[in-house]
Amino acid sequence: MKLPQVIIIGRPNVGKSTLWNRLVGKKLALVDDQPGVTRDRRFGEAHLLGLDFTIVDTAGWEDEDENTLPGRMRQQTEAALVGADVALFVIDARAGLTPLDEEIARHLRQCDVPIVLVANKAEGKTGDHGIYEAFSLGLGDPVPLSAEHGQGMADLFEALLPHLNERQLEMDAEAAIAAELDDEEEYDPKAILKLAIVGRPNAGKSTLINRFLQEDRLLTGPEAGITRDSIAIDWNWHDSASGEDRPVRLIDTAGMRKKALVVDKLEKLAVADARHAIDFAEVVVLLLDATRGLEHQDLKIASMVLEEGRALMIAINKWDVAEDASGLFNGIRKALDDGLSQVKGLPLLAVSARTGKGLDDLIRAAFELRDAWSRRVPTAALNRWFDDALAKNPPPAPGGRRIKLRYITQAKTRPPGFVLFGTRLDELPASYQRYLVNGLRRELGFDAVPVRLMLRSPKNPFAKK
């Protein structure tokens, strides 16, 4: 069956193509600060929290003669409205309403297409004034969001849901997610392991990779900040347990200092490149210096890796010169558990890039961590766990009204993501959500990998607001 069609409309440079990219999940549409980049309609398949639809990007609406290029671009946009099920009218919340926004609104009020008013660039408080102004357009409550940062997508989901066709509204949620998963690549445990090494400057990242390779492949030295570009090197690790050679892509990155200390332009670019390398890694090793212990900057790097959804492990380098090794290890273990509340029990290993101590254990643990990060739980096992979790600790009843949890399903892997369906989930305490996430990790084999839990409540589109 044909997917419902959602069209994005607005004046130039309000972030229409950025929103299109966000909904499609790929940066396919060109985006730039100058207006008029998009000229033709662009179609894409959008996936928003279980809703599937065709999303249409359009040229910026301009008040120009029909015979001019901007005028012909506006005609293309008007034509796209004819076949649309919903129109997203995007304004720039930071800039506030303009006369052109008001003209577009007048035109849209005369159309039969349902309109969802979107106040883009609403991150922080800079867009508050524009959001309040948007109420005057007479197109309903604006949906504040930031297409660039992905904020407000759940609100957009709720605004779109009543307008999309009956099939979409009544489709069984499990079937919708299963269809989405058809596009997910099947996990191959023998595929090349993408392993990034990150940490503060001079922790020994390049020295560690040279030790793996058994050659001076990367420049090293006592000076901090030698590495600038992220370097990827393919290598085969010999697994002595199985006797097999397993492919690994080692990614060396620039040292990450406190943001306040990074003033040199080249260092800023190097740190940005390191962050980019993390996005493409599967497992990230945060390398600590045993002579310096765990510092606040290490926790910030670890949090960043987990927020990106990567599998994280910690390795304490220079173990051969560590003082009070046992006390150091236990202290770091406790500090990690206290400082990274979102994940308990991250793999922690002691290594020495100089002597080679613990390096085989590190690679073996990285492969095991990737397996957990890529794990998919069979539906029957997930349902059994969910029923047991509810029986042991039923959800609370705030105000005497029970929160009903209907079922849970795994929406994705790498990192593992789950969708919890029920009623009144906006009142489900964060502590109960942590209870569920910790149970998923502890009892279903996810160990210390980041786990995402999304909450979905059905909304009656015919209910009075």
UniProtKB/TrEMBL annotation:
GTP-binding found in the keyword field? yes
Residues noted as binding GTP 2 in the record, renumbered to the chain: 199-206, 252-256, 317-320
Q: Which domain of life is it from?
A: Bacteria
Q: Which residues form the EngA-type G domain?
A: 4-168, 193-374
Gene3D superfamilies reported for this sequence: 3.30.300.20, P-loop containing nucleotide triphosphate hydrolases
For GTP 1, which residues are the binding ones?
10-17, 57-61, 120-123
| Keywords of this entry | GTP-binding, Nucleotide-binding, Repeat, Ribosome biogenesis
Give the signal peptide range: none
Q: Which CDD domains match?
A: EngA1 (cd01894), EngA2 (cd01895)
MF terms from GO for this chain are: GTP binding
Q: Name one GO biological process term.
A: ribosome biogenesis
The reply on keyword Amino-acid biosynthesis is no
Q: Please give the family membership noted in the entry.
A: Belongs to the TRAFAC class TrmE-Era-EngA-EngB-Septin-like GTPase superfamily. EngA (Der) GTPase family.
- Chain's role: GTPase that plays an essential role in the late steps of ribosome biogenesis.
Q: How does it assemble?
A: Associates with the 50S ribosomal subunit.
Q: What is this protein called?
A: GTPase Der
Q: Which organism is it from?
A: Novosphingobium ginsenosidimutans
